[in-house]
Amino acid sequence: MEAIITAATVATMFFNVANSSVKNGFNYNATLEGDKIVAVNVYDASSKYLQNKMQYSYSYDENSRLVKKTAQKFNTVTNKWENAYELVYTYSENGYTLSRNNWNAKTQEFENAKQMMAYQMVNKDVMAVSTYKWDDATNDFAQTENILVMSPQQEVLYSLSENIEK
């Protein structure tokens, strides 16, 4: 198991969805810069004509690791793209943290994350996944759940989960 999300991972996810035999009512178009997907447009294909639905843009660091995914939804009234949220990936030596920042239309800024997940490699075959929620009382994130995921050994996948109650 490796605890990074690279440009190749994003490309694989896109091609798996775009080439799926399961019809989901959407069509996809990716914009590439070199070997990196930098944008994906999602079109609603449920009517006679394709209609804009969502647009995702991707940013990478110097190691081709995904650092940000920004989602925009199409406003059919104004005929413009509007920010929806961004996913921010922060990498450490043994893993990464994922946080979601929602768009605030009033302030025209992304809000600070209210939840985040940390993925840390415990050893070669075990990853710890921790979930956190923002606690206004302490002005910090509080851990809400822990999960250990082990890579498949002899075609068996194990996971342990622990809910943390206050």
Low-confidence stretches: 154-158
Strand content: over 45%
Report how far apart the termini are.
32 Å
How many individual helices? 1
Question: What is the arithmetic mean of pLDDT?
Answer: 85
Number of strands: 11
Helix content: under 10%
Order of helices and strands: HEEEEEEEEEEE
Describe the structure in your own words.
This protein has 166 residues and is mainly beta. 7% of the residues lie in helices and 62% in strands. Strands 1, 2, 3, 4, 5, 6, 7, 8, 9, 10 and 11 form an eleven-stranded antiparallel sheet that branches. Strand 10 and strand 11 (156-163) form a beta hairpin.
Supply the key terms.
166 residues, mainly beta, eleven-stranded antiparallel β-sheet, 1 helix, 62% strand, globular
SSE layout:
Elements: H1 7-18, E1 26-33, E2 36-44, E3 51-60, E4 66-75, E5 80-92, E6 95-104, E7 109-110, E8 115-123, E9 126-135, E10 140-153, E11 156-163
Antiparallel strand pairs: 1-2, 2-3, 3-4, 4-5, 5-6, 6-7, 6-8, 8-9, 9-10, 10-11
Brief account:
The protein has one helix and eleven strands; from the N terminus they run αβββββββββββ.
